[in-house]
Amino acid sequence: MASRNRNRVAPKEQNAWNIPVQTKSESDRQPARKPSTANGSKGGAAAAAAAATSEPAVVSSSKIPLPSSMLKKSQEKFNQVQRQHAETAKKYAAEYVSSEEEEEGEDASGQEAGAAASNDAATRNILGDVLKNYHGAEADVGKTQEYLQHLLESRNAVCLICIETVKRADRIWSCAACYTFFHLMCIQRWANDSMSMKRINHEQQEGYYNNRGEYIPKPALDVHWDCPKCRREYEPEAIPRHYECFCGKEREPNTHPWLIPHSCGEPCEKQLNPACGHTCRLLCHPGPCPPCPQTVNVSCRCGSSPVKTIRCAQKSWTCARKCKRKLACGIHECGAQCHDAGQCPPCQNRSKQPCLCGAQTKEVNCHESRWQCDSVCNKPFPCGLHHCEGVCHAGPCGPCPLGLPRSCPCGKTETRAASCSERIGTCGDTCEKVLACGQHLCPERCHQGACGNCLELVPKVCRCGSTKKPIVCHREAICEGRCKRTRTCGKHQCNRKCCDGQCPPCDRVCGKTLPCGKHKCSSLCHQGPCYPCNQKSTIKCRCGGTVAEVACGRERKANAPKCKLPCRAASKCHHPNTHTCHPGDCPACVLPCGQPNDTTNCEHPCRAKCHDAVQVVTREKNFKPVGPWDVPKETVEVKTLPHPACTVKVPVMCLGGHETADWPCSSSKPSSCGRQCGRLLKCGVHRCPLACHKVTHRASTTQDSRCEPCSAGCTLPRPEGCAHSCALRCHKPPCDPCLVSIKSQCYCGLTQVFYKCHEFYPTGMEGKEPEELAELARRRESFLSCGQKCIKNFPCGHRCTSICHPGRCPNPEQCSKKVKVACKCGQRKVEVSCKVARATPTLDCDQQCEAVRAQKQEEQERKEREARAEEELQNQRELEEYERKFGKRKHRERKRHQVQQEEKGTHWAVYVAPVVAVLIGVALYFLFVQ
To answer: Which residue windows does the record flag with biased composition (Basic and acidic residues) (predicted)?
Structure first.
């Protein structure tokens, strides 16, 4: 509602004491004046009253430089208006009503005091309405409510990196694990510095040689950065580059006074956790999303209870029934309370059961029926000489292990003893088992037990790689040199004996002073900036009864904690102080006056807000400003105002006796209620149409001497469907039958029919029997039928044979129109009725159809043979023509006498013949192609 009414402007009205109250629109347009009170009060109420009574100031368009005192005053005015707007925003969040309801009957000081007094309760009410449908894990709901309450109450968050306030217009980033706010620039610098330190540390590391002489390279670079508060690790790609809202839908969200800071105002729509397929329905908000509030229809965990509607976050619910499933023993039932399938507890019934070997018997739980005792089996093997040395087991013991093939201790000689009673000794050969070093063999003779340490001298390189000397194989080579490398802190040397290059982290305490200026870093020596101080400091309220913890270093900038203890300052009116402890001056009293009202001189006590000590701002009326810097002098006085007119509601009956309304005591006189008089006139049908007027007897319901006599026509209801009014004057029922002729279209739409209105809509049909109503329906149908043949067509396409009728044509499946039906080849045709044609749409072919089909097929084959013969003949002609033109010619030897004749003279035919041959060839080619 607050977002709907924030642009509405309430009318400027006078309060009970005729003191002008400044409206919200004027407070936004005009700067508030700073009051100069005698008691030093600078509350927002005095500023609002001063701004309301101020005259329009001269527009400051002059370029005259202002003195420092005027600039200071301007800044103070700006701060005053800013505080006033903040209090107004709190009032909207607290009362949650429109601006007209806020300002009616209250001055500016009362509004601010009332909003401050009920801010906590109203915020809790708003959050209760928002989260009333969310149930589930109390930790998630509580964390979301805490974040929302901090933002609604304008409690500024603190950036743990720079220890500065996170303002509404700041560009921020919030951690995805702990939801803590940080300035965007601070977290970017923090992440880049952290990763740079890790890269520098990795570059300073080097590979090394181990005691076997193998080169161990330095570990791979693993660069990440973590949250300054919860230490959650993030990849380098996760460094925030843009300022986004909480839900991530909008970049660079605009600052809106009616939205949560850093929010886009759109639905969150994040996937809820645990994943259930639903999304968060709250508007874009900080902190974790509350549990899923959607409702689902699910059964209990055991599935024996009927399905019921429950919140999605609590869909795994437990009924009060007992589980009837059989336990693993197959004998007893579960009997536990409702639980998931496959999660029945072990059977706890007890019975006497023997152990695996059968030597002992004891009472055990049913699910522990196969139990193992601690005694040795000691059953004889089949050899009869040895006994089983295994612990209690089931089944046979098997053959005697000493009767199987055995070998000497070194394993080189394998033999099978004649009997299991014989003992296999050492073979006398060298042991030659691989020692623990994995390179040398045991040089001792075959022996019982494990081999000793390797005593071979081998050249080894020490851990740091500076010394190489022969040393016993099973020992590690260590020199006396000290490592001079710098540890990860970048300040202290390693100083480790024979270091292998992997210097341990620095074990000294950092000891740097943290940004809070009070404590020192207690972490181990490190590179880069220290983590923020995790200590807490305490701040107290004005009375000292309430203590709150804030981040260390924020004591001076943090607001005093909200104290719920009563205020200890002396009251300025006849009421005791009922508000809680607060900083600054006490707000104006908002309790009702309660004293006898001497203005109205009635029996009711004054119910107006206490007016014993009201700040009244007065200005000089004849003040003429010299320039824009000159402001009128203001005088703030605390006065006792007279009682306003009594507003207690008393019952007052209207002039006509229709209703009894509650009117203020100061104006409790009978008046017209504005309703119609409604007294029954002498005609017995109509009632008095005049507005509520003075009558002789208010309790009477019949015509009075001041009522208007009846002059209307008949208004009795006509039969249902009749739209014609009765032509007679006002009379008692019944009316004459309606004789108006009605013209209408028939059912087929070709002819107009005429009937009387009373025949179609007779009177007295209410409550008739079904037979009479059916007879009326048949009569109406006969009126609207023209008696001619219906012009509609059946679905088959033939015309309906019935007389003009309503609705669909009857019996469309009985159409008897003659149609022709043919066989598939179209040779045989028969004329039948339409209903028979729909049942059998085609005829069967006879012998004549088969003969015609065979004749057509033979004719088609003959044409195909002729076409193939013609095509072969054409191909043969083209081939002969091609060979004639491009075939190889025979060489003929010229005769000498012919050459001599050509030298004498060339005949014209020699030139003409080739040209004619070419032309004839081209003509034949085109002729064959065509």
So the answer is: 84-93
244 and 178 share one domain = yes
Lowest-pLDDT range of 124-133, 689-698, 859-868:
124-133
Domain that holds residue 740: 732-763+776-812
pLDDT per residue over 216-251, tens digit each?
787 888 888 999 888 889 999 999 999 999 998 899
Note whether 174 and 262 are same-domain residues.
yes
Residue 23, pLDDT score: 35
- Cα distances (Å, whole numbers) of residue 264 to 93, 159, 246: 19, 21, 8
Among candidate residues 49, 43, 11, the one with its CA nearest the CA of residue 27: 49
- How many other C-beta atoms lie within 10 A of the C-beta of residue 831? 9
793 and 838 together in one domain: no
My answer on whether 740 and 787 are in the same domain is yes
Q: How many CB atoms lie within 10 A of CB 624?
A: 7
Same domain, 232 and 279: yes
CB 647 within 8 A of CB 695: no
Tell which of 311, 344, 362 closes a domain.
311
Residue 288 is assigned to a structural domain of this protein: yes
Percent of the chain whose pLDDT exceeds 70: 80
Q: Are 420 and 402 in contact (CB under 8 A)?
A: yes
- 701 pLDDT tier (thresholds 50, 70, 90): confident
Q: Among 710, 706, 693, 696, which residue's Cα sits nearest to residue 658?
A: 693
Following DSSP, what letter does each residue of 91-116 receive, concatenated? HHHHH---HHHHHTT--HHHHHHHHH
Residue 240's CATH number: 3.30.40.10
**Cβ(723)–Cβ(757) below 8 Å:** no
- What pLDDT score was predicted for residue 53? 32
Q: Tell me the pLDDT tens digit for each residue of 273-301.
A: 878 888 888 888 888 888 888 888 888 88
Are residues 293 and 224 part of one domain?
Answer: yes
Tokens of 445: 């003779």
Answer whether residue 182 is part of any domain.
yes
User: Taking the model in full, what pTM does it have?
Assistant: 0.38
In a domain, 25, yes or no: no
What local confidence, expressed as pLDDT, does residue 792 receive? 85
Shared-domain flag, residues 805 and 828: no
Give the span between the Cα atoms of 318 and 323, in whole angstroms.
11
**252-258, long-range: CB < 8 A, 24+ apart:** 252/171, 255/168, 255/169, 257/89, 258/2, 258/3, 258/6
Show which of 292, 311, 330 is a domain's final residue.
311
Domains contained in the chain, number: 3
pLDDT digits (tens, 9 = 90+) for 386-398: 888 888 888 888 8
Distance of alpha carbon 496 from alpha carbon 487, whole angstroms: 11
Same-domain status, 833 and 753: no
Taking the C-alpha atoms of residue 810 and residue 812, their distance in angstroms, rounded to an integer, is 6
Query: For residue 234, what pLDDT is reported?
Result: 93
Q: How far is CA 5 from CA 84, 107, 191, 560, 624, in A?
A: 18, 19, 44, 32, 38
pLDDT at 685: 78
Structural domain contains residue 806: yes
